[in-house]
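Lab notebook: predicted structure, single chain.

Context: the supervisor wants predicted structures on file for every construct in the current expression panel, including those that have not yet been purified. This is the next one on the list. No modifications to the sequence; it matches the entry in the shared construct table.
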Amino acid sequence: MNPSEKMAGVVLEEHGGPENLLYKTNIESPKLKEDEIKIQVEYCGLNHLDIWLRKGGTGDKLTLPRIPGSDVVGIVKDVGGDVKNLRTGDRVILYPGKGCGQCEACSQGRESACKFFEVLGYNNDGGYAEYLTIQGKRALRIEGDYIEQWAGVPVAYVTAWNALVKKGKMTAKDTVVIWGASGGLGYAALSIAKSFGAKVIGIVSTKDKSDFLKERFPDVEFVIRASGVGKAVRALTNNEGADLVLDHVGKKTFNESLKMLKRGGRLSFCGITSGPIAEVDLRLIFGKQLTITGSWMGDLDDFNEVVKFLLRNKTFPHIDKIFPLKDVNKAQEWLEEGKHVGKIVLKI
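Prediction complete. Output recorded below exactly as produced.
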């Protein structure tokens, strides 16, 4: 394909509401570098990162215009001369992170700890478009009948894996509490924790979500989010507390997460959907000798492990709704309303 050809896609030119997501058909198709592949995007999953990009004000250095979209599945249409692991026609899933490639963290495979770490569709153009280019090493070949589900994997599953497995040191003996268990990240965490054999307690906002998830995870205990959520968790753990809590909510839940941990427990923290500033009772941390770890997505090795895990276990995300690309405004509104279970996906 001639790199000067135009493509359709969604461009964010100014921060603001969903109406600022502009569908265009005359975007210049990206040019291919020698270490890159060009992808014809089939599906792109939505994340709260897309909302933060659209609204701005996160404190991150964001540049516009930008094509959003981090969770990408597509077909390889062209291959750079230095790429040996893929060929035209392969269906691939993309790792949406990239470090500078030169610092100590990058040299150790910890790209997400790089000072210049970028996320696809947030710091550079992503999957809300017909085509994108990416380094060949950041794509893995996939096969099978789960194409839409794969589009719900990259950010959510890589973050959950990094937080629970790599940072949280989760084992089959652990009792694990997962906030927001019905969302994309929470659902991924449920799938991973259950596959590890852990005892899992999921926190959700409504009984409808609890009932829906109970059908898919019958041996998971679900707690409706309320003022007594900590008491409910303690009751389900013989008043001892949890070994590990996954918190991606932030301001509204951080202190409660510390309270529901047992002595020597671990808090894996990886999101701030309710806000970044929390008032914390510091006595809980040193008094209970807690360990707190942070995850900003995850690394390329986490992505590779996640893909192998899913190929083996088939515990794919639940897809709540699929929207055509032209309805991206409705898709982001649905995400913001928080009524979904699992992932929301755009069909490109």
